């Protein structure tokens, strides 16, 4: 199994090109199931989860072509299988996103209950309740969600989600585009990735009002057509690299970034002492001092994203001062704390709050990645740790970061992948 070997090498300087967002690309790929036409997606990150989604769609009969760089063509006219099997779904929670579009277009779907990162319960019951409100009959048997639309079509409905759910909003939004009548989705997630999906669906012929708000109204259409669409830049990848520079010092410019999607992260970095400048598609960070400790509390967008909590904890671990980090989204998302403490951090946790007392330096160690963002926090911690850091089980990392060792190496980091 691959590992990363990291040795601290001083400040980072140069430019990094940001990839498309994984969390936008996966639902966009699933949207290809809604149409007989061809959906051409650009700026797609070539990640393990993207390749898994490709296999999943191909297993359902869709034609999926790629240049293996950043573009995909998905044609749903050949779909002949409405079942998403366990062997693919078990590795990736986003697989549940084939449920809504498949059920809406074909009147039936069978999807294995998903797997993914072990960061806490992410139940799909909100997805299922919403589809039931739209007329679906759903049973769960032998680990599979089996859904049918008795009239062959889903029916427009008013759906109020009990809690904000990104995946639930995306699944129900896709399903509603082909439902008969009008669907009103309330308490929607407003993450940039949800907005990206909605904008793409509109290009495919969907009728959606309220994009980017907590209430979306969808007037069902009989069919969607093909389109060409570019995936929004990855705000979490960008935030991870900004945290790395805030820790090591230096000056780095991120290209193909989307600063408008991550304002709260940029504000927190300024609070930590970084000089941040941004344009429409770039962000620069200049950090010439030790970061200051900053308090973090995760919440749904547009508040501080849970996917940046671990990286900011790593930064706070070497910051000047003491701070608290409160996680309100996932109950198991502090699994990086013991690993950071093995590197010399001083972090204690009780319940969903961690107290981070900044130390002047970390020391290299062999550490184990437990989930995607925890992996990233350990990598950037290794950039400022004395000696050698080995990050094991980086298959988590490969699910969400495209060529992270090459991108960091390009701005001066001493980091290499060890194949094992």
From TrEMBL:
One of its GO terms (biological process) is regulation of cell shape. The keyword Zinc does not apply. This is UDP-N-acetylglucosamine 1-carboxyvinyltransferase. Belongs to the EPSP synthase family. MurA subfamily. It comes from Simonsiella muelleri ATCC 29453. Cell wall formation. Adds enolpyruvyl to UDP-N-acetylglucosamine. It catalyses: phosphoenolpyruvate + UDP-N-acetyl-alpha-D-glucosamine = UDP-N-acetyl-3-O-(1-carboxyvinyl)-alpha-D-glucosamine + phosphate. Its EC number is 2.5.1.7. Pathway: Cell wall biogenesis; peptidoglycan biosynthesis.
């Amino acid at each position: 199994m691959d590992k990363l070997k990291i040795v601290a090498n001083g400040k980072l300087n140069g430019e990094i090109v940001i990839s498309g967002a994984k969390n936008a690309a996966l639902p966009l790929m699933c949207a290809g199931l809604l149409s007989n036409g061809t959906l051409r997606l650009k700026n797609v990150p070539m990640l393990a989860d993207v390749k898994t989604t490709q296999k999943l769609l191909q297993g359902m009969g869709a034609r999926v072509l790629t240049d293996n760089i950043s573009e995909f063509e998905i044609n749903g006219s050949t779909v002949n299988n409405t079942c998403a099997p366990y062997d693919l779904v078990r590795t990736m929670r986003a697989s549940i996103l084939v449920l809504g579009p498949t059920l809406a277009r074909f009147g039936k779907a069978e999807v294995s209950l998903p797997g993914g990162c072990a960061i806490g319960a992410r139940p799909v019951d909100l997805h299922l309740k919403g589809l039931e409100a739209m007329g679906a009959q759903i049973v769960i048997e032998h680990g599979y969600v089996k859904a049918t639309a008795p009239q062959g079509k889903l029916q427009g409905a008013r759906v109020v989600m009990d809690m904000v759910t990104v995946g639930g909003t995306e699944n129900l939004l896709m399903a509603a585009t082909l439902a008969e009548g009008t669907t009103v989705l309330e308490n929607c997630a407003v993450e940039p990735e949800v907005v990206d999906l909605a904008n793409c669906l509109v290009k495919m012929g969907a009728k959606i009002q309220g994009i980017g708000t907590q209430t979306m109204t969808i007037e069902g259409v009989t069919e969607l057509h093909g389109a060409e669409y570019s995936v929004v830049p990855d705000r979490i990848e960008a935030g991870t690299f900004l945290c790395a520079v805030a820790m090591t010092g230096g000056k780095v410019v991120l290209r193909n970034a989307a600063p408008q999607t991550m304002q709260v992260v940029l504000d927190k970095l300024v609070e930590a002492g970084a000089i941040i400048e941004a344009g429409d598609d770039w962000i620069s960070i200049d950090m010439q001092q030790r970061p200051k400790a900053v308090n973090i509390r995760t919440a749904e967008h547009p508040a501080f994203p849970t996917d940046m909590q671990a990286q900011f904890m790593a930064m706070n671990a070497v910051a000047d001062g003491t701070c608290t980090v409160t996680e309100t989204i996932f109950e198991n998302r502090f699994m990086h704390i013991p690993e950071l403490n093995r590197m010399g951090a001083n972090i204690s946790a009780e319940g969903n709050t961690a107290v981070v007392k900044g130390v002047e330096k970390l020391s290299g160690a062999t550490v184990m990645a437990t989930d995607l963002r925890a992996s990233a926090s350990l990598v950037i911690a290794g950039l400022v740790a004395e000696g050698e850091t080995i990050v094991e089980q980086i298959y988590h990392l490969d699910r969400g970061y495209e060529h992270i060792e090459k991108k960091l190496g390009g701005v001066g980091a001493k980091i290499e992948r060890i194949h094992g």
